TrEMBL record:
Keywords: Disulfide bond, Hydrolase, Protease, Signal, Thiol protease. Gene3D superfamilies: Cysteine proteinases. It comes from Artemisia annua. The lineage of its organism: Eukaryota, Viridiplantae, Streptophyta, Embryophyta, Tracheophyta. Residues 1-22 form the signal peptide. CDD domains: Peptidase_C1A. InterPro entries: Papain-like_cys_pep_sf, Pept_asp_AS, Pept_cys_AS, Pept_his_AS, Peptidase_C1A, Peptidase_C1A_C, Peptidase_C1A_papain-like, Prot_inhib_I29. SMART domains: Inhibitor_I29 (SM00848), Pept_C1 (SM00645). This is Vignain. Residues 40-92 form the Cathepsin propeptide inhibitor domain.
Length: 351
């Protein structure tokens, strides 16, 4: 009896460990098609993937060779064969980074006409480093799943941040409420924008907790019964003007929602400061910047909270290079950022 419990405990521990631990491989495993096939099977075992096909093996093989080539280069970041390693880049983007920010921005009006950076424009001195996680203003990393709701995750993390800063209480808030109810311009799993999401929260009596309006990963009918007793309110929102300096000033004061172009090696990112290739015009993904810092070698970076679970990247985060010559920033991160505004005296709504 006791032995059985022990075995079951050890087994479940093993399962948890094998899921959380990242997948390692040796150069030798890339030598031939046979060894690559064995690597593919080992990867399938690690990630509990049933499906096994020549097509998927071909994709995996390309990704495995690419991860190995990239990691051999002396770059400040590493890639890995994570659970996305059986997807092509376009499959990955259309499943997990599909907020179509550029598309919705175009529907909303030409960029540049509706931007200002007045709230933090006057900020004079900036701390050398900022990490809102250390100030209890960032909730644990969430998982959007195969739904183009990154815009909602990006927006909610920023609202969680300013709410924690203003009230001293870190609450986990609802993406699903935005996916279901914020439908004037935004479009559930088909994508959306963060700034209209903030506007929606301001105009519709606040944002519910995740507990009362939990995430289901698909668009359902908006359900007012799930709004619960406590809603987090906002005073308004502001779009940043696209300058890195404005973004820096804003992040020094609260977590900020930004769109980005996730083309490139984003999906297979493991750790370090991402300085790699990615586009900067097709803003399809959305994230939340929760701080900034630089490495001992002087590579400056943003601390980016993602919504692909905590087994992706650095426990769900990415360090993204900043301070590059291109004004749009690495992966276009400077181009479309928005701030939820909440004054020190704005109470939340209790029902
Ligand atoms: C790809 O891998 C994931 C697990 O990471 C699995 O759920 C999915 O079924 C796989 N897809 C294909 C087409 O093999
Ligand atoms: C620009 O700033 C003004 C005043 O600070 C504010 O009322 C307005 O809503 C802002 N516009 C946008 C589009 O954010």
């Amino acid at each position: 009896m006791e032995i059985n419990t022990f075995i079951i405990r050890s087994l479940s521990l093993l399962l948890i460990l094998s899921f959380v631990e990242s997948f390692h491989f040796h150069e030798k495993e890339l030598e031939s098609d046979e060894s690559l096939l064995r690597l593919y099977d080992r990867w399938r075992g690690h990630h509990q993937v049933q499906e096994r096909s020549t097509e998927r093996f071909n994709v995996f093989k390309t990704n495995a060779l690419h991860v190995h080539q990239t990691n051999k280069l002396n770059r400040p970041y590493k890639l890995e064969l994570n659970r996305f390693a059986n997807l092509t880049s376009s499959e990955f983007l259309s499943t997990y980074a599909n907020s179509k920010i550029s598309h919705y921005q175009a529907l909303q009006g030409p960029p540049g006409c509706n931007k200002n950076s007045s709230t933090y424009g006057g900020v004079k001195s900036l701390p050398i480093r900022v990490d809102w996680r250390k100030k209890n203003a960032v909730t644990s990393v969430k998982t959007q799943g195969p739904c183009g709701s990154c815009w909602a995750f990006s927006a909610v993390a920023a609202v969680e941040g300013i709410n924690a800063i203003r009230t001293g209480k870190l609450l986990t808030l609802s993406e699903q409420q935005l996916v279901d109810c914020d439908t004037a311009l935004n479009n559930g799993c088909e994508g959306g924008l963060m700034e209209p999401a903030f506007k929606f929260i301001k105009e519709h009596g606040g944002l519910a907790s995740d507990e009362s309006y939990p995430y289901v990963g698909k668009r359902e009918v908006c359900c007012a019964k799930k709004f619960g007793k406590h809603s987090v309110t906002l005073d308004g929102q502001e779009n940043l003007d696209g300058k890195e300096e404005s973004l820096l000033k804003a992040v020094a004061n609260q977590p900020i929602s930004c769109a980005m172009d996730a083309n490139g090696d984003f999906g297979l990112y493991k750790s370090g400061v991402y300085t790699g290739q990615c586009g900067h015009t097709n803003l399809g993904h959305a994230v939340t910047i929760v701080g900034y810092d630089e490495t001992p070698e002087g590579v400056k970076y943003w601390i980016v909270k993602n919504s692909w679970g905590d087994t992706w990247g650095e426990k769900g985060y990415m360090l993204l290079e900043r301070g590059i010559p291109e004004p749009e920033g690495r992966c276009g991160i400077n181009r479309n950022c928005a701030i939820p505004l909440k004054g020190p005296n704005t109470p939340n709504k209790e029902l």
